Amino acid sequence: MSTGSKTGFIVVLMMIAFILFGVSGCGKGSDEKKKDTTVDIFDDSDVKQTTTKNKDSLTDMEVSTNEDGYKTTEYTKDSEEEAKNCKEQMIVLSGRKSDVYKIEEDCYCKGDKYVIYFRKGCVITGDTAAAVEGVMKRLEELYGMSFDNTDHLTTYPWRREFFGMTSYNGINTDNKRVNILVKPYEDGAEEYTDDSVVLLYDKYMDMECGDFGNVIAGLARALRERQSGFMGDIFERGFALYNEEKLGKEYNLADERMIQFIDTDGKEDQFNKSDVVNDPEGVYKKLEEGEESGNFLVFNIPYLYEYGYRFVSFLMETYGSDVVKQISEISTGYNYDYGFVDIELEIIKKATSDDVFTKFAQWLSNDWDNYIKDYMDFLDASTAE
């Protein structure tokens, strides 16, 4: 082979090598890039994080971590007209439990049936909104009722009470969505629930912890009260606790809070079964009406919860879950306000039977212990783990 031919051959070989190297190198670079940006969005580990920039999908958003270990808070513009004068921003949550945020300023997020307002200082996870949506959907399925029912709404001034006079200006002013207020546990303010407002601590929002039972109870009560007029403390509180028990078991929650309403031994305001058995309707009226003390009415709150929990459990076991919807529908035909106990009793009897309280006394004596045994065994096993 001549010198020129050799040279030409070497050049060809070098060009082929260069091309092969370039293709190989680009391929490797593409693979690495793909590996960094294509991640299973359902992976809940802290090691993997999605880095897709699609802001329309909450679970696909990039979430960086600040120096304190919390995920960097990101916000998005609220597209609804009502929010144009709202100074608070709408937070974007990742949808992942592993992403933990510390709220740096008052903000909110919203769904079709709720607005969640986060007070500065809250620590929440990226799946908070998803957890709320799941409970609301399940409650609607169980009772055939909808959070969209807004014919009987109160006008509790929650903005002024828990935020500020001009806080969240224009947001959900008609209360068509449930207002869920989340505050830092350290604040220690009193909790509150009605048809339009559910006030919760941030530590309650973890759906894998027993405290999440408070979320279930609050949303259950809001659902019931959005259907008709207020049915009294015994019924409304009892319905909340009944669902905290039932859904808590579905969620596998070790909800130790429930024990105080079941095991009343040694309590100062101990639930006296014999009093209720002897005069169930009379005790109901006495508890609802309260007792006068000076210029005030004093209510035995623990007893209200304990009576209500047992009474609603009895109604569900005896008349089925539809009884709540029936009571709510009958209640809409009455024009009454808080404190009309005789009307509440009349509504309950119309939805059940005239001897409903006699049946309750019998059930309390004969069936309550067996009814609650499975749940107590569940709690004992859960708390022992």
Task: Please outline what is shown here.
The chain is an alpha/beta fold and 385 residues long. The chain has 13 helices and eleven strands. It has helices spanning 3-37, 128-143, 158-162, 213-225, 233-250, 259-262, 273-278, 280-289, 301-319, 322-331, 341-351, 356-366, 368-384; strands spanning 74-76, 89-92, 100-102, 107-110, 114-118, 123-125, 178-183, 192-193, 197-201, 291-293, 296-298.
Structure description:
This protein has 13 helices and 11 strands. With 385 residues, it is an alpha/beta fold. The protein has a 7-stranded mixed beta sheet with strand order 1-2-4-5-7-9-8, with helices on one face. Helix 10 packs across helix 11 (341-351). It is globular, with a radius of gyration of 29 Å.
Helix-strand blueprint:
Elements: H1 3-37, E1 74-76, E2 89-92, E3 100-102, E4 107-110, E5 114-118, E6 123-125, H2 128-143, H3 158-162, E7 178-183, E8 192-193, E9 197-201, H4 213-225, H5 233-250, H6 259-262, H7 273-278, H8 280-289, E10 291-293, E11 296-298, H9 301-319, H10 322-331, H11 341-351, H12 356-366, H13 368-384
Parallel strand pairs: 2-4, 5-7, 7-9
Antiparallel strand pairs: 1-2, 3-6, 4-5, 8-9, 10-11
Helix pairs in contact: 2-4, 4-5, 5-9, 10-11
